[in-house]
Design a protein that fits this description.
There is one protein chain. Helix 1 packs across helix 7, helix 2 packs parallel to helix 3 and helix 7 crosses helix 8. This protein has 9 helices and 9 strands. Helix content is about 40%, strand content about 25%. The longest helix has 17 residues. The chain has a single domain, classed as 3-Layer(aba) Sandwich (UDP-N-acetylmuramoyl-L-alanine:D-glutamate ligase), CATH 3.40.1190.20. By secondary structure, it is of the alpha/beta class.
Length: about 270
Amino acid sequence: MAPPIKTLPVALTIAGSDSGGGAGIQADIRTFAALGVFGTTALTCITAQNPSAVMGVWPMAAEAVTQQIKAACDGFPVAAAKTGMLFSKEIIKAVAAADVGQGIPVLVVDPVMVAASGARLLKEDAVEALCEELVPQARVITPNLHEAQILCGHPITSVEELKATAREIGDRFDVACVIKGAHLVSEQVVDVLYDEGEEFVFTAPRVDAVESHGAGCVFAAAITAYLARGELLSDAVGKAKEFVRQALLQHVSAGRHYPLNISWAEATFAG
């Protein structure tokens, strides 16, 4: 007798391609797979990059992004979607319209703005479109410290300011907000989730990683995967934080780079 067919939850990533493989749509798909979620994609940009530098960005036509999202949603029961690098206001508007038109139940917005190398990944005139068109549709947004400072318009220098800013951004956009505090100087890495009046603080020892390229993408993708699996948001964030921490701890060597080991959890979570 044939074994029973396994049913997987489905997630969609709407993001750019990282030719170095450590971030973007490549990292998202690998994260989905490691967590037992079937991944679908809508490509927004092609980048020429590696963990050291971004050498070029070529955006997709907005209509191409729209049609990719439609095709994924027509073919599969997408339980949750995430956005990564969107680059332009035209693409952001297309994604926002497609999200509503396709009735995607859960949206995670990773407001990717600037690469660790300093390269701009979101045009300056696209920030307003991101805030007005897409962020209010999200179940949760996942800015890092620098992105949160852009969204709130003031510096964040302490854990208390991190907490206050998560609340400020959450109330401003009527959305859950988790701010990643890895760039605060401290021995502990503190992330803060504000969700409908509740505050959740996640603390873990800092990992002395050689490279952290793609960690933000993996974090948002893991949250998306857990939400697609039916987890509560606070649980999804806590588990995603641990998933990234283990991927950093168990990093691998590939040439002269040391990427996150996203596949460390496959045997644990794919069941």
